[in-house]
Structure formats: structure tokens, C-alpha cells
Design a protein that fits this description.
This protein is of the alpha/beta class and 352 residues long. It folds into two domains: 2-81, no CATH class; 84-350, TIM Barrel. Helix content is 37%, strand content 21%. The N and C termini lie far apart (47 Å).
């Protein structure tokens, strides 16, 4: 079976982008006229063989009928405005790990006082979402009992909406018990790295709930995901995974409340991570907002080697700015202020 995929490319920014959109030379990316494109890369997959070519958007009309139909459908998704963002150009998800063993900040925010201080700090630094987790999912991490996980986060989750009514609350969990309690306390987002596969009961808890769901890709489990991960074609394999999971969620919930996360570092080696980031704009053709989490990830040290640093702010920001240039707008991060600063400067330069 032959399958086609569409990736927007050759982007324009700021005033030039707005002019080109107005004169119909480019198309707006995700409904945002500040970034537009005039070329697409068409991937063709025939079983395991993958080829691609880049064409100008004005040549789409000359494509064979079946291919053209698929590309036009993809273009509609690519140019469709993402409701999650409202009028924001970017959204920052601040990470709050209330765990003793997370890979970069384990044990720092395990008390309620320290956690609340960190939330306040992230809000002041520009966070729009706080992602709270009580179980580490770093490579090789251990599974903990749901009641222990909920105990770690319960005080903060219960207080969250009273203290921060305008902020979005995301719960980072794979367990239905934790998800159920978080939803009772008005959680806005469920961020399950297993994509609702670890606990079969979790879909019952999210069914018909007014909740954003993160469709997160991970090959394997945190215990084995980094043991020789393999793909036929990492980008298209993840794309196919997203398509299947989106259809499953549409059958049980609001079809529009979905966020896609390709899972940088979750069952991927350096080559996989770089290929995903370099062509991440392909996922726009699925029609949903895209979230990435590159903050402090191992791939940064694998590239920088002797120039690695404890918090990897330089590598994190570089990957975010590159992703931003491809229209990605939701970023899960530790160092909120530094990332906010970098994005504001980058956006200002693009608009000159």
C-alpha cells in the first residue's frame, strides 16, 4: 500500500510573511500569518521504502488526482488555526517534578512549600501551564504505587486552581487513580507518556471529560526504551502512531482537545531525535497543536560532549528556537525565564 505525507517547508517570517500571505504567494502556518510557507515536502511510503520530493505549493494542482486530494486535505490541516493557543504565539509548560529521582531535578521540590515557591517562580518567568508529576519516567526509572504517586502531588493539585485560577494545570501521570483525582480537582491537561496504554482504566477516567489529552510517543517503557530503539522511518512511524491514537481518542472524547508530542528521548537515539526535530513540521498536517520536550535531554550532551553543562540551557534553547522556526509553539521546560527571554528576542528579530 502506498501512503503519502505532507511537510510544510521553506518558511517566511514577520512582515515579509504577512505580505506574502496577503499577496497569495505563501500559506499561513497553523493560521498564523507571522509564519508562512511556499513549499511542501511530499513523502511517499511503499511498504518500507520511503522517498520524498519538494515542490512549490503552486504546483500542487499538477499532481496526480489521488495524490493531489491527499495533499490538499493535509494543507487544510496545516493552515488551520490551533484553538489551544488562542492568540498566543507560544505557550510554555513549566515542569514541576515532585519526585526524589527525576533525572535533573529529583528531590528539589518534594515539599509543598518548595513546590509552591517553584510554581510562583515559573509563573513570574512566563509559564502558561504547570505540568506536575509524582513519578519519574527517566530511562531505567522504577514504577511506584498509584497511592504513593498521588500522595506526592495531592496537596499541590488540590490547591492549584484556588491559588492559580488563570493557569492551566497539567498532570503528568500514567495511572488512572492519579488521573481521576487530578480531574476531580479541575486538571486541564492529562500528560500520559504511555499514551494511555500503561493503565487500561485511564481511558474510562478521561471519557467525555473536558480535558486536553497529550498523545505522547514512546517506544517501549521507561525501563527499556533506550535499549537499542529501532524504526523503519522514525518520522513516518511516529506520524502513523499519531493517526491511530487520534482516531481512538476521537471515539471516546472531544475530538479537538488533543496535543501531539513526538517524545524526544523516549525510545529514540541521537539520530532519531535529530531527524524528528529537523522535520518536525510534518506533524502539522495532522491538524493539532504540537508539544516538544527537549529540556535538559541527553541528546544535548551527546552533541555538545566536552561542552555539556548541568542544566543544558544552551542546547535546550537552541532546539526550541529551531522548532519555533518550524511553527512549533508549545514547549515543556525547566528553565522558564531563560527560554522565555530567548523566544521573545527571537520573535522580535523575526518581525523586523
Amino acid at each position: 500500500m502506498i501512503k503519502y505525507y505532507t511537510r510544510a517547508c521553506n518558511f517566511y517570517y514577520g512582515k515579509l510573511s504577512k505580505f506574502l500571505v496577503k499577496t497569495k504567494q505563501t500559506l499561513p502556518l497553523c493560521g498564523n500569518k507571522d509564519i508562512s510557507f511556499d513549499q511542501i515536502e511530499i513523502f511517499k511510503k511503499n511498504k518500507k521504502k520511503v522517498t520524498s520530493r519538494i515542490i512549490n505549493i503552486k504546483k500542487i494542482k499538477f499532481l496526480p488526482k489521488l495524490v493531489k486530494s491527499k495533499i490538499i486535505s493535509d494543507i487544510k490541516n496545516i493552515t488551520f488555526k490551533r484553538k489551544f493557543l488562542n492568540k498566543k504565539k507560544h505557550v510554555l509548560m513549566g515542569i514541576l517534578n515532585m519526585t526524589p529521582d527525576s533525572f535533573s531535578d529529583g528531590g528539589k521540590f518534594i515539599t509543598s512549600k518548595k513546590a509552591l515557591n517553584q510554581i510562583n517562580k515559573m509563573i513570574e518567568s512566563g509559564a502558561n501551564i504547570i505540568d506536575i508529576g509524582g513519578e519519574s519516567t527517566r530511562p531505567g526509572s522504577k514504577i511506584i504505587h498509584p497511592k504513593i504517586e498521588w500522595k506526592r502531588v495531592s496537596t499541590i493539585v488540590k490547591k492549584f486552581k484556588k491559588k492559580f485560577p488563570k493557569l492551566l494545570l497539567s498532570i503528568d501521570t500514567r495511572k488512572s487513580f492519579v488521573a481521576k483525582n487530578a480531574i476531580k480537582n479541575n486538571a486541564d491537561i492529562l500528560n500520559d507518556v504511555s499514551c494511555f496504554k500503561f493503565d487500561k482504566n485511564i481511558k474510562k477516567e478521561i471519557k467525555n471529560k473536558n480535558l486536553w489529552k497529550v498523545v505522547h510517543h514512546m517506544q517501549g517503557t521507561p525501563q527499556n526504551m533506550q535499549i537499542n530503539p529501532k524504526y523503519d522511518h522514525v518520522i513516518l512511524d511516529i506520524y502513523d502512531f499519531f493517526e491511530k491514537e487520534i482516531q481512538k481518542l476521537k471515539s471516546i472524547n472531544q475530538p479537538n482537545k488533543i496535543i501531539l508530542d513526538p517524545g524526544i528521548g523516549f525510545g529514540k537515539n541521537l539520530k532519531h531525535n535529530l531527524m524528528i526535530l529537523s522535520k518536525i513540521s510534518i506533524f502539522h498536517s495532522l491538524g493539532f497543536p504540537i508539544l516538544i520536550g527537549t529540556s535538559r535531554k541527553r541528546f544535548i550532551s551527546e552533541i555538545s560532549k566536552n561542552f555539556d553543562s548541568k542544566e543544558r540551557i544552551g542546547g535546550t534553547l537552541s532546539s526550541i528556537i529551531f522548532s519555533l522556526s518550524q511553527g512549533i509553539q508549545i514547549f515543556r521546560i525547566h528553565n522558564v525565564k531563560e527560554v522565555k527571554q530567548g523566544i521573545l528576542v527571537f520573535e522580535s528579530l523575526l518581525n523586523k
